[in-house]
Each structure stands twice: as structure tokens, then as C-alpha cells.
Description:
Elements: E1 33-42, E2 48-57, H1 64-69, H2 74-89, H3 95-100, H4 102-118
Antiparallel strand pairs: 1-2
Amino acid sequence: METLFEDVLEPRCHCLPWFLGSQLAGHLSLRLSQLDVRCETNTKDNVFVNIVASIQYWALADKANDAFYKLTNTKTQIQAYVFYVIRASVPKLNLDDVFEQKTEIAKAVEEELEKIQEAPKANGPQRL
């Protein structure tokens, strides 16, 4: 028997009629979470740098079904996209330019994560 998502329960005491076949599908936190992504890459002038990107994310209550069933490992998937953006943009810059353009790199990471979030699921997963 496959358990299907029905509702997001607010934090309080709930009665789950297990004898009628109801069961808890799992837990999904709607709290704000932070993921620190450490990425080592080199710059245009061949200097290796360690970049730490702090990503704050949370599941939306109205999209809890998607967050629970369509994402297998949220942290790993976010980390992969952040690596992709950082490793695509930093090697094009000199060391001094990396520090000057950290805002542009952060915007590029944010835009990439937003594209993933808004992408239609019918096309299947995006590949890096």
C-alpha cells in the first residue's frame, strides 16, 4: 500500500486513525535551514581559492507535496547547483576580481536556484 500525501499538520497534538489505514508519511520541516557549501576552485591567474556560500532555504507549506516527494536529498541537490555556478564563474576571474564581484556571483547562484525551483517538472530533472 502506497502512502499518499494529504495535508500539512500544524505543530500540536493530532489524532491519527491508524486502524482506518492512515499513517504518517514522514516529517518535513518548514523552518528556515542553512547550508554552508564549501567549494575549492582556481581563478584565471591560477590561484586556488576556497569559497564558502551560505544558502538559506525552506519548504513552502503550499508546495510541501513537491518538497517531500520530488526531492530525494535536498542538501546534496542544492550543493550540486552551487558548485556548478561557482566553478563556472570563478575560473573566468582574476583573484582580485573574485572579491570585487562576489555580489554578482551570489546573484548568479540565486538565479540558478530560482530557475530550478520554477522549472516545470514534466520535462524531468535538469542535468549539470
